[in-house]
Amino acid sequence: MRLLIHPDDAAVRGVNDGDDVRVFNALGEVRCKAGVGGWIRRGTVSMPKGIWRKHTANGFTGTSLVPDTLTDLGGGACFNDARVQVERAL
Q1: Which of 30, 52, 62, 77 has minimal Cβ neighbours within 10 Å of its Cβ?
Q2: Which residues contact residue 72 at a Cβ distance below 8 angstroms, ignoring those fewer than 6 apart?
Q3: Contacts of 71 (CB under 8 A, 6+ apart)
Q4: pLDDT at site 66
Q5: How far apart are CA 40 and CA 17, in angstroms?
Q6: Best-predicted range by mean pLDDT among 2-11, 56-65, 79-88?
Q7: In the chain, what are the domain boundaries?
Q8: What SS3 state is found at 59?
Q9: pTM of the predicted model, to two decimals?
Q10: Dihedral angle computed from the Cα positions of residues 34, 47, 32 and 22, in that order, rounded to the nearest 10 degrees
C-alpha cells in the first residue's frame, strides 16, 4: 500500500518514491510507503480504500485519521477526507 503524493509536495518534505512515510494528525498516524507521481493533485494525498491493517507498517489504516463527526445532510459518516501532515519516517 502506498500513500499517493504529488512530486512537488514530496520534494518539500524530502520524500522520494518508495520511502517510508508517516501520515498523521491529532487523531492518529499511519506508516506506509510513498507513491510519488503527477497523477495526484498538489496539496492532497490519497490512501487506497479497503486496505487491511497488515498492509501498513504500524497496523493502522486511513480510518484512524478521520473524525467521527456526521454529515449535516443525512447524518452519514464523514470518511472521505481528513487534514493530515506527511513526513519521511525515521
Answers
A1: 52
A2: none
A3: 77, 78
A4: 85
A5: 13
A6: 2-11
A7: 2-88
A8: coil
A9: 0.85
A10: 90
Strands of the sheet with 28-36, listed across from one edge: 45-46, 2-5, 28-36, 20-25, 85-88
Residue with grid cell 507513491, as numbered in its chain: 35
Q: Which residue has 498523521 as its cell numbers?
A: 24
Helix (H) or strand (E) holding 20: strand 20-25
Element (H, E) at 12: helix 7-12
Output the pLDDT for position 43. Answer: 96
Q: Looking at the predicted structure, is the pLDDT value of residue 65 above 80?
A: yes
Closest CA to 6 of 34, 41, 31, 46: 41
- The dotted CATH code for 2-88 is 2.40.40.20
What is the helix (H) or strand (E) element at residue 45, kind and residue range? strand 45-46
